[in-house]
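Inputs:
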Amino acid sequence: MTLAYLNWSLAWDAREQFLHGLLRAVEVSLLAIALSVLVGILLALARMGKAPLSWVAATYVNIFRGLPMLVTVLWVYFGVALILGLNFTVFQAGVISLTLLYSAFISEIYRSALEAVPRGQREAGLALGMHPVRVFARIVLPQATKIAIPNIGSMLIGMIKDTSILTVIGMVEVTRVAQDIDTETYQSFVAYTAAAGVYILAAFGVDFLFRAVERSLSTPPQGRTANALHSRRRRRVEQVVRTVGGAQLEAP
Amino acid sequence: MTENSSPEADRPRRGGAAVVELRGIRKSYGALEVLHGVDLTVAPGEHVVIFGPSGSGKSTLLRTINLLEEPNAGSVRVLGVEYGPGLGGKQKRGSALVLRRHVGMVFQQFNLFPHLTALDNISRPLRSVKGVSRSEADDRAALALQRVGLLNWAAHYPAQLSGGQSQRVAIARALSLDPEVMLFDEPTSALDPELVGEVLAVMRLLAESGMTMVIVTHELNFAREIGDFNVFMDEGVIVESGPRGFFDSCANPRTKQFLAAVL
């Protein structure tokens, strides 16, 4: 087979399979990124906290930052499942593996983001008599999240790419679809170029999404989505200002 | 080093039990002691002004009153309840959370929450601390903004406010929680000179309303005007203190030297 004959229509004909594969990859990744952010925040807090707990967190981070995805997937799907006497589905094994690895990275992202929130913010919350947990949840965490968002976006792109490794435990996602086309037609270049295109499109999509989120988290919020989300609150503020003082809001 | 504390600081002033009573406050960072056993009493309705050079420990002293700085030794009594490490014995300490609900604080850098509007900067803590509903918190926050003349700016974010406006919102935020005493930590030091006046005007109104205030400041003309009791600190001790007229009657050479350089 030479380069002379490239049957690009194969890729187009397989669009539905590619789309299904991508949806599967996105499903796994979205669930895993949500869990990773949760675990990552807890790890970051543990690591910034007192001695025994901070050591545990640091050890966790260094172990799972150092593990390759392929090893982790095989370890979870075959190894851990055997020891625990469980049968993970491919989907579960994928989510667990990605969460184990990416929570380690995201804890580092959150650690630096939390440290970037000025100390005065926490002090102001405490001085107002807010409970330290509320100060964290309402004052510090939202500001740290705003700082962390671009990096979390990169993590999500990384995750979607890493789902390609889930082919080894039999998940039918984008890479697997390409492999099947290749096996049936020997059109390796077409098959894998198409797969590459799907991943790149996904990366653009995530980037677009996270830019929108970033804009809506800026203060004052920017972008149509953000304005729509804030319009109810703004009307409420206008109403309060009118009833309390008969006053009109200054234009922003 | 109680021999360094001036006797005036111990003297009970004005009627009624003290709002704030600091006794023998010591604070160290590692091997460096920045407060060497400081005493200070604040009576109800009194306006205490603390001034002195940078690094004299005046901000640290102010921050021990609401335990943002935990003293290493000494007694912090607020409204008759002991919150500090105490003066020995097995006194039960009050919780910092309860203490801070009686004490408002205004910071040099305002410390408004940048992700919230001016109104939410006030109503969010109100909901957390007082447990009131969102609509009641909003109403009370709007009244607090009205008090400092910023009701029309309710929907603005801190980044859209001037320094003077920000500090007035910060004052409104602290006042909305009905504190018994207000602490001001160099409230005008971060402001453009032309914006200092609007913040001092708000503080003047607050003082006239009878609020108990402890003010760390470099605005000595304002201090002279408002201070019922004036405290000069240097190198972690109170060098000299005195009632109204202090700025003209102080005797300590270090105080005179500082005032000559600043005024």
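The two ends of chain A are 66 Å apart (CA to CA). Flag for discussion at group meeting.
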